[in-house]
Design a protein that fits this description.
This protein is an alpha+beta fold. It folds into 2 domains: 86 residues, Pleckstrin-homology domain (PH domain)/Phosphotyrosine-binding domain (PTB) (PH-domain like); 205 residues, no CATH class. It has a 7-stranded antiparallel sheet with strand order 4-3-2-1-7-6-5, covered by helices on one side. Helix 3 packs antiparallel against helix 8 and helix 12 runs antiparallel to helix 13. The radius of gyration is 32 Å and the shape is rod-shaped.
Length: 337
């Protein structure tokens, strides 16, 4: 027989009544001063205990029996016919082996969601969202970047216009995605070029200064047009939001999403594109340069100057392919379509 003590709440007042309880012959007997109750087990529900808090037995007519004798409550729970999920959760988490397995499975599921699930969902969403929404995201990103990390270009206006005309000429020979070419100065980003959601391509003054000729600049712009073509910036933005949603689901910190939204422009540049996205943009740039009859080696030359790390190794956590790995197709291509 299972016996324990506790406090009975009659459901009409907050007063606790000290009682003794006993499980006997398939019934729960509760006795105390002026109290003599008997309940069949199918009329009671033992709530799974939470940590070291007192356990609760739910009785008919809103009555509750509270007790600190968790062992006795566990025995009472086993004797009842309830199949509540919480009971099974308590049963599993009370065993270290099951808890460790659940932890490992949870981590693997979260990793798979972030590594494959979120990018796949972002890719699908990027190609279904209206272009107007993408432009709005790009305009907001550019506005924030102009405020905090970019400044007006110091290049002569004639130089900017000359480069823009060359791009227009080349896009007249082949299909280019809708885009807007802008020049900015940036001490933060240095020699860089970036494609924002909506088709805005920003080229920094430092990149123009780094280039040995205009063909190298056009090669970099072609690479960014590849990002525009495949809507990589929007996909990266959606991936970041998706990761933030998962973070909120795990931590319950909804403020993280607001922080993420405020930092999206910087995240787009600092985290960079995935290896697959870079390969897609590189493939677009290579085909674009061949069609334009611009020697692909120009991209390899300026990329080598942009990234002095010439190692060819990558790991699962690397966001970009190795520089040497990227420039090989450009050095191997000699034809002009």
């Amino acid at each position: 027989m299972t016996a324990f003590t506790g406090d009975l709440f009659d459901g009409r007042s907050s007063q606790a009544h000290p009682v003794s309880a006993a499980l006997d012959a398939g019934r729960l007997h509760i006795t105390g001063e002026g109290i003599a109750l008997v309940f069949p087990l199918d009329q009671i529900d033992v709530a799974p205990p939470v940590g070291a808090a007192r356990g609760v037995v739910h009785l008919p007519k809103g009555q509750e029996l509270h007790s600190t004798d968790l062992a006795a409550l566990a025995a009472l729970s086993r004797a009842t016919a309830t199949n509540r999920p919480e009971r099974w959760a308590r049963h599993l988490e009370s065993r270290l082996g099951y808890a460790l397995i659940a932890l490992v499975v949870s981590v693997l599921v979260m990793f798979a969601g972030l590594r494959w699930g979120v990018p796949a969902a972002a890719q699908l969403a990027a190609h279904t969202l209206p272009a107007g929404l993408e432009r709005n995201i790009g305009e907001e990103s550019l506005m924030l970047m102009d405020k905090f990390s970019l400044s007006p270009s110091r290049l002569p206006l004639a130089r900017q216009q000359a480069l823009a005309r060359q791009l227009v000429t080349q896009c007249g020979k082949q299909a280019c995605p809708p885009h807007t070419l802008l020049f900015r100065n940036s001490a933060l980003f240095g020699a860089n070029a970036m494609a924002l959601p909506g088709g805005t391509v920003v080229v920094t003054d430092a990149l123009v200064d780094l280039a040995h000729n205009d063909a190298e600049i056009l090669a970099v712009i072609a690479h960014e047009l590849g990002h525009v073509k495949h809507r990589h910036s929007l996909r990266l933005t959606l991936q970041s939001i998706g990761a933030g949603v998962i973070l909120v689901a795990i931590t319950g910190d909804i403020g993280s999403v607001a922080d993420l939204a405020a930092g999206l422009p910087s995240l787009l540049l600092q985290n960079g594109y995935s290896r697959d996205m870079e390969r897609e943009a590189d493939a677009y740039a290579l085909a674009w340069m061949n069609t334009a009859c611009i020697p692909p080696r120009h991209f390899a030359d300026i990329l080598g100057r942009l990234d002095r790390d010439t190692t060819d190794s990558t790991t699962l956590l690397d966001s970009h392919p190795g520089t040497q790995q990227r420039i090989k197709p450009f050095l191997a291509s000699h034809h002009c379509a």
